[in-house]
Amino acid sequence: MAEAEDDLEVEDDGSEELDPRFLAATNHVNIIAPSLNSAQLLKLYAHFKQAKFGSCNTSRPSWYAMEAKQKWEAWNSLGDMSREEAMNNYVMLVESLDPEWKSKSCDVPEKSSNQNWISVSTLATEDLPLDDSDKTVYDWVKEGNVDMFKKFVRNEDINNIDADGLGLIHWAADRGNLDVIKHLINNLKADIELRDEDGQTAIHYAASCGHFNVLKFLIDQGAQKSVEDNDGVKPIDIATDDKIRSILYNS
C-alpha cells in the first residue's frame, strides 16, 4: 500500500471542452475552500474529477490512506455520470454553497482546462521533506532505514499506534521491509497480531501489497491468516495475486 502520494491523478485526455462556467466555479472554490467542511469538499472533488476525466479509472487507494480512500470512493460513486452532467452539478453545488459566487468570481483564464484541483481537498496533504533531526522512528521505517530504526526505536514504540492509525509493524509490512519486521518480532517481541485503527494486522498489509517474503515470514511466525478486520475483510480477500493467495490457502 502506498501512502497518500496516491492523489488519484490521471492524465487529461482532452476529449471534451470544459464549460467556462465550470472553470469559473473551480476558481471560486479555491477562494471559499477554507470555509467548507470535508463532506462539501469531497462532493466537489468527485464532480471535478468526473468533469475532467470521466468515470473513475484509478485503482482503489491503500487501506490505511484514509483521505485518499475517501476521495476515491466519492469519485467512484458517480459511476458513469457524463462529464457534462458533472460540470453542471459542480456549478450547482457552488451556487448552493455561495449563491452570489458569480458576482465575486474572477475572469476565467483562456484555456485553463489544465488547472489543478486545489490541494483542495485540503484533504490532500502531502508529506513535506523532513530533516533527519525531525524524523521519528516511524519515518525511518517508512524510508526503510533499518540502522536508524534500530537506533531510535524505544520500548514504548513497539506496539504503539501512530496518528495515521498504524503501528511500526504495519508500516514495515506495507513497505515490504522484512529486516524491520524480523527485528520487531524476534528481538523486540512486538505483537504480531497488532491491529491498526481499521482492525487490520500486518498480514493484511503484506497480502494487499504483494510482499510475499514478509507474508511468508509472518505466517511462519504464527500470524493468523484468516483474521478479519473491522469490516470482515480477510487477508485473502485483498491478496494481490495467485502466489499470495496460494500461501494464504496452503501454508
UniProtKB/TrEMBL annotation:
PANTHER family (alphabetical): ACYL-COA-BINDING DOMAIN-CONTAINING PROTEIN 6
SUPFAM superfamilies in alphabetical order: Acyl-CoA binding protein, Ankyrin repeat
Keyword Nucleotide-binding tagged: no
Protein name from the UniProt record: Acyl-CoA-binding domain-containing protein 6
PROSITE patterns attached to this UniProt entry: ACB_2, ANK_REP_REGION, ANK_REPEAT
Keywords: ANK repeat, Lipid-binding, Repeat
SMART domains: ANK
InterPro entries: Acyl-CoA-binding_protein, Acyl-CoA-binding_sf, Ankyrin_rpt, Ankyrin_rpt-contain_sf, FERM/acyl-CoA-bd_prot_sf
